[in-house]
Design goal:
The chain is of the alpha+beta class. It has eleven helices and 14 strands. Helices cover 33% and strands 24% of the residues. The model has no long low-confidence stretch (mean pLDDT 97).
Length: 264
């Protein structure tokens, strides 16, 4: 590791002010992504602004069919929440599949979303659930938030405060995970709403994306049988040592079928 300054803040305004003052600074939430890249010198921020002592950034609030999760809420808290399990079972399921127990007890939903790793799980959940990202400046729909590999709509000093979801009729997440990292080789989140079906894929492309052909098929018939005739193109999908684009296309269909079968 290399020398850097560490700032302990107690509120959002103080954190944002420090970020504006130090343009090379980074917010640190759970640190499960940032510390790793810092160790590898892939990112070398001169200042870290710790968000861990800001009470208003944590917690889960339910109001009717709407559930709001604070950005600093840990993966393990989302996975174990009775409210999340009752309102959006697929989201609790997703959180419980992230990495291992240590990571789930340290990593945060806001940190994962802000980082937008192309193989991370939460981006698929947000996009599939049509979530709203609430920052210190504005509200951003998930469709407009994820821009590309490790790229989001967040501005330089903008800070995610919470994420708002509307409970679907049914939801589920299915993931084919890498055996070592447990990142998604392919992960598929399926959500059925009264007026639409949304299907989001992570791990298969440079960023999370919606699968419109599967959404169309499930809108007519929300069942695994509706997907039997759907063809998933390998064009533009990731290819690497572990899985080429053709295999990932095959996995997308399998994970979509599995998610539909599990949806509740």
């Amino acid at each position: 590791m290399y020398p850097f300054s560490f700032h302990q803040t107690t509120n959002v305004a103080q954190s944002v002010s420090l970020k504006k003052e130090h343009t090379e600074a980074k917010y640190i939430a759970g640190g499960q992504s940032l510390i790793g890249v810092m160790k590898l010198r892939l990112d070398k921020p001169s200042q870290l602004i710790n968000l861990g002592s800001i009470p208003e950034l944590s917690g889960i609030c339910v109001e009717g069919k709407t559930i709001t999760i604070g950005a600093m809420t840990r993966h393990a808290q989302v996975a174990a929440s009775k409210d999340v399990k009752a309102c959006i079972p697929g989201l609790a399921q997703l959180a419980g599949l992230i990495a291992d127990r240590m990571v789930r007890n340290m990593g945060t939903i806001g940190g994962s979303v802000a980082n937008n790793d192309p193989s991370a799980d939460y981006p698929a959940g947000l996009l599939g659930l049509n979530a709203t990202i609430i920052t210190n400046q504005r509200e951003i729909k998930a469709d407009d938030f994820f821009k590309g590999m490790f790229e989001t709509a967040l501005e330089a000093s903008e800070l995610i405060q919470s994420i708002r979801f509307t409970a679907p009729i049914k939801s589920a997440y299915a993931k084919f995970k890498h055996p070592a990292s447990r990142y998604a080789v392919v992960g598929v989140f399926v959500a059925q709403f009264a007026d639409e079906v949304r299907v989001a894929v992570t791990g298969a492309g440079s960023s999370v994306f919606r699968l419109t052909e599967v959404e169309k098929a499930l809108s007519s018939n929300f069942s695994a049988q509706a997907l039997e005739a759907v063809h998933i193109s390998a064009d533009g999908l990731n290819s690497d040592f572990f899985a080429d684009s053709t295999y990932r296309a095959h996995l997308i269909k399998l994970m979509a079928i599995q998610a539909v079968n599990q949806a509740k």
